[in-house]
Amino acid sequence: MMTLCFGWICTAAHAQPFPAKPIRMIVPFPPGGIDPAARLMGPRMTEALGQPIVIENRAGANGNIGSDFVARSPADGYTLLFATSSTLITGVFLSKSIPFDPLKDFTPVSNLYEPLHTLAVHVGLPVRSAKELIDYARSNPGKLSYSSSGVGSVFHLNSELFKQAAAINVVHVPYKGIAPAMADVGEGRVEVGLAGYSNFRPLLAANKVRLLAVLEPRRYARLPELPALEELLPEFRKAPSWIGLLAPARLPRPVLERLHAAAIAAVKSPELQKYFEENSNLTIGNTPEEFTAQMRADMDRTARLVKAIGVQPE
Predict the structure, then answer these.
(1) Taking Cα atoms as reference points, which of 133, 137, 108 lies closest to residue 119?
(2) What is the pTM (predicted TM-score) of this model?
(3) Tell me, what CATH number does 157's domain have?
(4) Residue 8, class by beta-carbon neighbours within 10 Å (0-12 exposed, 13-18 middle, 19+ buried)?
(5) Does residue 106 sit in the same domain as residue 124?
(6) Domain check: are 208 and 123 in the same one?
(7) Average pLDDT over every residue of 110-118
(8) For residues 92, 93, 95 and 98, what is the CA-based torsion angle, rounded to 10 degrees?
(9) How far is CA 34 from CA 21, 66, 123, 143, 294, in A?
């Protein structure tokens, strides 16, 4: 009888409801960038889970250091990754050595949100719509140029996807960062830019650029007059540009469900919705299954695009 009682006590002790202690959320980048969103999510998830979410920055190697730390952590739900597609999708094809497999070493929880991406031109270019831009580029092959934050960046990939879908020849001018790249669109040194709406806001205020389209599947509610590029080019699909929540591989299903519910409650909270609206981000909040399928599809599509444009890993 004593043995049975002791066994029951041991089982109960090891079967504490999740979570029973604080949870670490690893942001694999320095403060700034995606860090503010993570720090807004933390308290909202804490409310849902009843345990503190501790934000920890582990920056370096385009997010690989922090991501690898999470990949090697126990699959118990107490270590999470606040990740970007620039690390887990695009970055795989830009580096010769990645210490983890994004599709095998993580449990996707949810794609939380994505930045709004747009197509813009310098105001001096005689076009007022995406169709007029395409017609102009076709009539002047190789005479227009677009800027990006560098080879292999999401801005580079989106621009190449646009070129492919529109069957146009526009010259790529890579920069070291998105700010100088879009600044030169504003000055007219480069005519075309495909970047985040937030990157164009100062240039729009100064009347230096003209927005032609959003790169999303549908129109953006706050800019309803701006068409989605897919309305003109149905085959166009933008490159991956999401921010998502992941855990180590083989996370137990009950733990995954608790984390997913807490994450969705957080992204739908008034605080996060206000932040997304102010920064032109789109709430996604999909299921673990949908996020898993999205990551696989993103990986396949990015592999084909990188090969087509000849990007070489470094």
Answers:
(1) 133
(2) 0.90
(3) 3.40.190.10
(4) exposed
(5) no
(6) yes
(7) 97
(8) 30
(9) 25, 14, 31, 36, 20
